[in-house]
Amino acid sequence: MSDAVLLGLAATIRERRSAGADKSYTRQLLDAGPSKCAKKLGEEATETVIAALSEDDDALRGEAADLLYHLLVLLESRRIDVADVLKVLDARSGQSGLEEKAARSTSS
User: Fold this and answer.
1) C-alpha span between 39 and 50 (Å, rounded)
2) I need a surface site. Which of 5, 15, 85, 108 has the fewest CB within 10 A?
């Protein structure tokens, strides 16, 4: 998946803030606030794990897509730009996960 797909979906989600709540599920989620969005993300994470454990690749693809969508909705509900999250990931690339975790523990 390219950054463009994520950034495009994030832009669509941002635009849904001004859509009619009766026509936009995204708007309904955003209107419900970050707590509801976080709860939905947790539900989707659980469904993703279940799909992974069932070894059904199509189900896992679908649930992973739902998970990414709900993560983007949660970020928008907190007005966090996904581009900023991608910058964090970019900054972490090139170092091992163990090094990255160690750096975070010493700076906390």
Assistant:
1) 17
2) 108
